Amino acid sequence: MNRLLVLVSVIGMVLPAGWVSAQDESSQTGQRARVSEEAQRLQQLKSENPEAFRQEVQARKAKLKERLAHLKQNNPEAYEQVTNKLQEQRQERLEWLKENKPGVYQEVMQERRQHVQEKLQELKAENPEKFQEIMERRQEHREAAMERFQQNHPEAFERLKENHPNWAQRADADNNPPGAA
Prior knowledge:
Elements: H1 2-48, H2 50-74, H3 76-100, H4 102-126, H5 128-152, H6 154-163, H7 165-175
């Protein structure tokens, strides 16, 4: 009798778990198929009508921004999870591009640099105090990254200094600009 109870309870525990995971797999497969179809549709739209594609992308960005703002207001924890997941996805995509399509990766990074530069110029004109604050944080981040690099890779750091002597002088000048007390 005891063996029968153990057997029934084990089957009861295993069966629903297997059934649920099968349902999850089928729903994930369906979701992947929908995402793939949507990606193909967007790819086709991009090649046939670039302006409509840009408008579609802008509309999606606006919708995402709206949903994120709502989520941030109503559920900050979920907002953090979603933004972290989006960051991870972007990072994974960039890593994939870097490995598999270096030319496209270079273009994306160049566009990103230009976009950041444009935003900084706008900020400098519109809000100089915030611009200065961002530039100070940027410099602190660079210094911290360089310190980590120096600590974690001392030989490479020495090669950097040897191969780029002007870099050390420029870094010192950035840290101690002329006229600074």
